[in-house]
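call fold(seq) -> tokens
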Amino acid sequence: MDSLPDAILQYILSNLTEAKDVASCNCVSKRWKESTDSVKSIKFPRNSFENISDVTASDAIVLKMISSFHRLEELVLYSPFTSKGLASWLTHVCRSLKLLELRMDNLASEEALVEGPLKLDCIGVVKGLETLKLWGVLMMSPPKWDLFPNLRCLEIVGARMDDNALGSALRACPNLSSLLLLACEGIKSISISLPFLEHCKLDFYGQGNTLLSLTAPRIVSLDVQGCSWISVPETSFLKNLSIANVSGRVYMVQFRNLSSLEALSVRGVQWCWDALTTILEQARDVKHLFMKVEFTGNEALQPFPEIDFVEFFKNHPKLQKFDIHGAMFAALCQKNSLKKLETGFAIQCLEEVVITVRSPLNAEQKMNTLESLVRYAKGLKRMVIRVLRMKSNHSSADDFCDDICKFHHMNKHLVHIE
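ret:
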């Protein structure tokens, strides 16, 4: 190492990211210490100061380290810190910092109710940020952010929020291309308008009754959890869409154009039938469809109505992979579904089917549907049948399992049982 040119040594040491590694290198020699000022990315793990009980002391150590760097671009901090300490660090690196990731830890204590928003306010000084990631955030009042013109990626994981506070924060980030809000509690109604947004994942924790309005004309990928009403009027470029609600009902979904959609996932305990049929009708060109909805009905839980087998696949001619769970499979298995088969009918593009079965009811119709999928899907390469524990002690459950085993034996090259 002593014979290396300064430029190469600086390049090697600049690739260090762990704070303890950088501190160790500072102790090796004066030459190494002088070279570590070229570090551009620094990370402080959760246990960085486990032997230091005074948070202000660890704040001072962090300040001393980042002050020694010539141009710090990335700061990741999972260890505890104070708002005062954060303000001092960001003042030193605000001109060069591009990525900031903080574990805020201000959700549980009463002290956090006073101190928490101050930490958010401190971030506003770093106007050149391109990526901001926050963990454990309390955002009950609008953060004092003016504008982040360069911010492209915003991620908030584990948060208590107010509608107005979140709306204000997003307005300070008008040029986002990627937005992730994961396990965020307290949002009742939110309207988001981001003209450059391409990838968006929203996970609202609670009763599952959030109202969402999203205006993002460039949106390519959208994943929404916990919303009952969803309106996304501009979706010409949307390719991947996932909607789930494990706590409440999905009452309404409103999309103007899903012609580019390639993958659709709908999940939840209960969807209103109008919402489900609306999105299936619009997603006619979808290639990958995942359906795991247990019940329909506006109020009381109701089973799916009959779905015509032939019409369903005619309405989705480009479908390549179909992952279907109990309720939808049962709806396709009505007696009348297979009576309208025309000469030459074929499921042209279907290559893979994954079917989850959990009830022996209507076993004959279900077997007919399985056989029809093999018969009419000319390009089928793989069928997976997942048999869950049957909620029946009747012998029909055993008979149904026997029929599935026979079906598997007759189509070993295609059918797999899990």
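The first helix runs from residue 6 to 14.
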